[in-house]
Amino acid sequence: MKKSTRNSMIAIALSILIILIILLVTDFSKSISYLSAAKPGWILLTFSLTVGTWLFEAITLKVFALMRSLSIPFTYLFKITVIGTFFNGITPFSSGGQPAQIVFMQRRGISVGESTAMLVSRFLIYQFVITFLGVAAILKAYPLVAGKISNLAILSIFGFALNSLVLVVLILFSLSPGFTEKLIRLVIGFLSKIKIVKEERELIEKAMRELRFFHSSMKDLIRRPVTLGIASLSTLAQLICMISIPYFVALSIGIPVNYLEITAVQLILFLVVSLIPTPGASGVSEGGYVLFFKSFFGEGIGAALLIWRFFSYFANIIFGGLLTAHEIGFKSRSRS
């Protein structure tokens, strides 16, 4: 917990520092003016989109829990979803969410195998949907972004390629277990030769167990097209909530924008910052937002940044941190 607290403080401090720098180099008085005139109704609706991203991810987990005949309350899956966003926000490449969720679910009596199966299934669907949306976003927004910030627009291609590569690797693992096994043995053997890996045999055995588990999960998914369809729709709804936040931020401060353009640009920004290893992509997210959205918000960019970053990042840290503390306290009370 101490490490999590330290990581969260570093990520928050970095994000706040970048925001302050941006506010100082832009028109600070204009930012305050836009913030003071922000419409509470649109702000509330923007927050509802953040809640929507949590809600639809929890629905996806519930779908996979039902597929595996697990009677996990939806309220708990919602809680574990928000906890996952907290750990994603304080770890490099958003890598800490799923391991934390597995640990907390295990403490509630949900086996590691079952929780891992749910989360792996959700991850597979997420990668498929984000890749599909990435194609649409690049086709729609790349010319617009390239015209405004041509030197950075190419990064969207790399971000899309990275997410596509993950999906391709997952499909390869699913369709060709024999090739995958040989590839794993080859990679671990190479790492052992260059002294990065010490216990080669034990690591190969562990990797083979994980591979067999992955294949089993994929077979379960393929045999259930209705489950796949429902999970894909709920994941699509989750991502639409996420990329719609800048549009409602614009409405809250009275700036008219085109919905399809601004959501496509938001998705491109998301693809770009997925390359960044800092916790929560802190630092780059804020700078990227200003670069990508300056042409939309003009003098209101400072106010838009503050509102957007609060609902897209700080809300995850605040509510996720509170629920993490509650879950740790719940376990302590249960032991008592």
From TrEMBL:
Main location: membrane
Ranges in a coiled coil: none
Listed transmembrane segments: 9-29, 41-64, 76-95, 124-145, 152-175, 226-250, 262-281, 301-325
InterPro entries (alphabetical): L-PG_synthase/AglD
Highest taxon of the lineage: Bacteria
Membrane topology: Multi-pass membrane protein
Localization terms from the record: Cell membrane
Species this protein is from: uncultured Thermotogales bacterium
Pfam families listed in its UniProt record: LPG_synthase_TM
Name by which UniProt lists this protein: Predicted integral membrane protein
GO-annotated cellular components: plasma membrane
Keywords: Cell membrane, Membrane, Transmembrane, Transmembrane helix
Keyword Acetylation appears in the UniProt entry: no
Xref: PANTHER family: INTEGRAL MEMBRANE PROTEIN, PHOSPHATIDYLGLYCEROL LYSYLTRANSFERASE
